[in-house]
# Entry
Amino acid sequence: MTQSPASPTIPGKGAGSSRGFFGHPWGLANLAGVEMWERFSFYGMQGLLAYYIYYAVSEGGLGMSQAAATSIVGAYGGLVYLSSVLGGWIADRLLGAERTLIAAASIIMAGHIALAFIPGALGLGIGLLCIALGSGSLKTTTSTVLGDLYTAEDQRRDAAFSIYYMGVNLGAFVGPLLTSALWSTKGFHWGFGLAAVGMALGLIQYVLMRRHTRTEANARAPHPLTKPERTRWIVVAVVAVAVIVAAALLGWLKAENLSDIVVVVTLIAAVALFAVIISSKQNSKEERSRAIAFIPLFVASAVFWALFQQQFTVLAIYSDERLNRSFLGMDLPPSIVNSINPVFIIIFAGVFAAMWTKLGPRQPSTPLKFAMGTGIMGLAFLAFIPFSGGAANSVPMIAIVLILFLFTMAELCLSPVGQSLATKLAPRAFHSQMVALFFLSVALGSAAAGTLAGFYSADNEVPYFLVIGLAAIAVAALLVLVRKPILKLMAGVK
# Structure
């Protein structure tokens, strides 16, 4: 059997044939564990973020407008995944995926500490920048290292990513619950402090189990920089920082337009990265064809995430103002809704993993899975319409639970499958950067979720949810129509 680019290269140490962890390598347990703690901290913080920005100073917040809050949250979400390109580049050209993973986890922890201990806008800026840079790099490298545990032909791959996804969502479920409890009793900064503790635990756990994931393949950069390239990239970095500082000083960067800027930057980055990968002379004809096949799937993924990530923009405001959160005589914090989707993921990720494994070669092709995810996401937005136009706190909690159930079904069709696909389609010379392309689609969607939130208000709910829902369904239908040409370009990858 020809070894794929994603396969371990050390005889006897590649874990692709190991079955120590529920039929999978022990490295899967380590990677799922570190991502569980990272998601604990990430969602524990993000569940409070919009409220921290727009709540009044007397309530412990920063007192900004809701428009500013949703734009900042969207921009931050986009930067998290935009930084996956940087993380992939560092892994491929400088440090290797495994060492990049450890550095990223340390930077994330520093960001949460800044949010917890530095007050005001300064702490917000430093904290979000560190968390965004670290989280994007961590997600890219954990996916890359996980892909290294399996050959491209191993039919456990999609199941492994689903199991990994289930572990991740254990953290995403518990994080908002505990940080919300601390917010309610102690204030925002205590919640942010707990997020820092969670990331520290994840870093410790990863180091203790590092031997199960570190190999010769992921410990070194597959395409290291030459000395002239290092000099050139240092100049590029200095110029980029200077441009950002100048834009801030000139007043071009405002809270209300941050998500728009990130949308534009992400589009440019995606086009540039696709161009670099597809045009590279290091790729074989088959590798180039597979990279081209990823373009329509990238578009569908971006549309999906533009809807899904509105959990932290539109749905945050909706939960604060429209949702009836009274339960057993208690008024639950609005951030409580961020734990609903992870509950469903925990329940159904294993079901989806078992289903894909059981179906084996008979499971739906990747383009069909992407179409299912995007289409169901559109239906979820249409499901808001029957509850539109009501009074404050008029929407029953069960309605949001059912809508977020649809969010979850859509997510399980697309997200873990998309990460797995990126590792299978990756050219040898662009291993981590191909994974970064998938996360760029998440970046584009996340930033767009902040931009789209600017069009939402309680007065225009029906047209808002109708147009966005139907647009997603149309994209899904188009993907079904072109699935055969996509599969042909994928050159044997299903």
